[in-house]
Amino acid sequence: MTPRMINSASTANSRQRQAVENGTVGRTRVDFATLGRAPLKLGLGSRRVTSRDLEVMEATEELLHAEVPEPEGVASNVSLLRGFNATIPSAEQSRTRRRQMRNVDAPHLGLKKLGMNARGLLTEDDDGHSVTSEDDVVMVSRVETGRKGKKRRGRESLSSSKLLGKEELSRQKKEILRDKENLHVRRSLINNEIGEITNKIAALDVIRENLEHDLLKLQEDELELDDELEGVGERVEFEQAAGRTAKANGAQSVHVPQSSRRRKGPSFLPSEHNELPPGVAFMTLESHSAPIAALDFSEPYGTLVSASQVDSQPIVWDLFSGTQMGRLKGHTGPVKCIQVEDHVCLTGSEDGAIRLWDLRRVDNEDGWGEEGEFVTLSDVAEESEDGEAEASNGIRNGKAPADEREESCARVLEGHTKAVTSLYFEDDCLVTGASDKTLRQWDLTTGQCVMTMDILWAISHSAAPSIPGIAASIGSFAVPTPPFADGSWDMYEDFVGGVQFWGYGLVSGSGDGAVRMWDMRTGQAHRTLLGHTEPVTCLQFDELHIVSGSLDKSIRVWDLRTGGVFETLKYDHAVTALQFDTRKIVAATGENGIKVYNRTSMQHSTLLTNGHTHPVQRLRYMDRYMVSGGRDATVKIWSL
Questions:
Q1: Closest CA to 266 of 219, 302, 232
Q2: 534: alpha, beta or left, given left = phi > 0 and alpha = psi -120 to 50?
Q3: Residue 442: pLDDT over 50
Q4: Which 8-state DSSP code applies to residue 161?
Q5: pLDDT tens-place string over residues 176-210
Q6: Which of 311-325, 360-374, 436-450, 540-554 bottoms out in mean pLDDT, i.e. has the lowest?
Q7: Buried-exposed string 250-259: b where 16+ CB fall within 10 A, e elsewhere
Q8: At what angle do helices 90-101 and 166-244 cross, to 10 degrees?
């Protein structure tokens, strides 16, 4: 320090000392609150300012009336003094002191060396020298035994050679009791810390669960984008094909469009549909008098065709307005299955016939006569290239000729001997399944049956083990359904519950509980998937999986590559209808609500809001639009 800095420091020191002395003279006492608020500066001299100089008086009255905050967390159950004492490592010190008090002077026994040998430690190095220190080596002197034959005295107990005294024992007792109390305090502290850690783990688990939920949502969004990308590609192909195709037959030609069953992209919906809450039935169609047996629609807010268990004339609906457009008249028995693609509709009935309809010609004054009228292919007027109807042989019952009216039925396919219970068509190829236990492949352009596949023949020539109850299926097939949620039940007589094909691969589900995979080029069943214990009522498949529903109250997801069961969903009642995509499985399971299974998060949900009052039997959805039919004879329109 320079002389100038030393002079400045001494000047400041003298000023501070004078200020302290003046404060002492002017005020003999400094209260506690003033001292706490006033800054304290100490000088650089040799004399330090102490509490005597300041004459500090504690504010005892204020401290006694002040509110002491309650301890939280770990300290809530332990007093401050006990917690402080518990942190003092007195237990080890007391234990060490007591152990030393119990030590007894005795000859060295070499116990450390014996312990090292017992643990397999080395006692000598390679040169023969001991690896232990000199302190570890203990020499035990030999005790003279005296004359031969003289007995040795017994050794006294080690505890008898040392007396601790009453005061020492009392002190040790108090130390032990205090240590036990401190251990109890420490145990409480540790338990509280464990509780806090448990709460933190629970909070982290909640955060992890939320993050996993967000991750699943991202996976669903990715799947939705994949479907939307494929939909865009399909739309590009469709518009290119539509631009290349010449409309030679005019606007009224019956052209079979591409199937919508494998369409993955989003559908075209009105802008108002986005305002609808999801999972709510916003429209109800009421015209049937019996439980719904079959339904299908062309597109959201398009054309719907539905039939009940007693309807031989399915009803055609305009989903945009919710009004009835007309009926499909021609079948002589109740309609069991329906498929709609654009303006083309195919229906299968108990009369064993399949009818091809043009929904653009449907109106309330359909020209097909009364219910129960029998019409064959020869009764259908053939159209010429210019769109005008050529002269035909007329209607069998003497009704007006075809050139006077435009009939909605374009073709009738006959061949099955019993009820047609399932059908599926793409382009000009149609496959039907019937209660005569056969599958038939049809050419829709010619109306001819191309191939017949016998299920009983496949059963008898299958290498798979015999299925229980197969003898009963050889004759007439009829099994009672398990009771639905409302207690009602039906007699199930559909031997073929579902069919679908893709390319040359055909999948069918039958009354023997088996799911069969057929080669449509040879008509042979090349694989049989066994697992269901009751008749298969519905199925669908894509590139990777087959999903089938059965009266055994389960849905099974099969792996196409291995033929094994990938996943099984159990329900309380029979499964009567299902549909799935990459994100969800929607099913009718004998309850008033519609079951939705999220394939990504593996969570189940039920659609009930404004829904059916009796169990659901049939359903079909596209994108965020769904139609369902129930045992309450109503059709519900849902927003997904």
A1: 232
A2: beta
A3: yes
A4: G
A5: 888 888 888 888 888 998 999 999 999 999 999 88
A6: 360-374
A7: eeeebebeeb
A8: 140
Nearest 10 degrees: Cα torsion 632, 633, 639, 640: 70
- Give me the residues paired with residue 588 across strands: 577
Tokens of 34: 């003033």
- For the whole model, what pTM was predicted? 0.65
- Whether the CB-CB separation of 451 and 518 falls below 8 Å is answered with no
Examine the pLDDT at 401 and tell me if it is beyond 50: no
Tell me how long the chain is.
640
b/e burial code for range 289-319 (CB count within 10 A of at least 16 → b):
eebbbbbbbbbbbbbbbbbbbebbbbbbbeb
Residue by residue, DSSP assigns 526-563 as: EEEE---SS-EEEEEE-SSEEEEEETTSEEEEEETTT-
Please list, in sequence order, all residues whose beta carbon lies within 8 angstroms of the beta carbon of residue 405, skipping any fewer than 6 positions away. 367
Q: What is the pLDDT of residue 424?
A: 96
Structure confidence at residue 460 (pLDDT):
86
CB 59 within 8 A of CB 66: no
Task: Pick the closest to residue 369 from 343, 332, 339, 344 (CA basis).
Answer: 332
End-to-end CA distance of the chain, in Å? Answer: 86
Tokens of residue 56, six digits: 């500090």
Residue partners of 351: CB distance under 8 A and separation at least 6 = 312, 331, 332, 333, 419
616's CB contacts (< 8 A; 6+ apart) are 576, 577, 588, 589, 591, 592, 593, 594, 628, 629, 630, 631
Distance CA 592, CA 518 (A): 35
For the stretch 525-547, pLDDT in tens is: 999 999 999 999 999 999 899 99
Structure tokens at 519: 């080669």
**C-alpha dihedral over 346, 348, 351, 352, to 10 degrees?**
100
Strand duo 536-541 + 545-550: pairing: antiparallel
Say how far apart CA 460 and CA 154 lie, in whole Å.
96
Closest to 552 (Cα-Cα) out of 467, 464, 456: 467
Name, in order, each residue with C-beta under 8 angstroms of 119's C-beta and a sequence gap of 6 or more. none
Residue 268 CA to residue 605 CA, distance in Å, equals 26
Q: CA-based Rg of the chain, rounded to a whole angstrom?
A: 47
d(Cα 621, Cα 170) in Å, to the nearest integer? 87
The amino acid present at 318, given as its one-letter code, is D
Across 451-461, average pLDDT: 90
Is there a contact between 417 and 436 (Cβ–Cβ < 8 Å)? yes
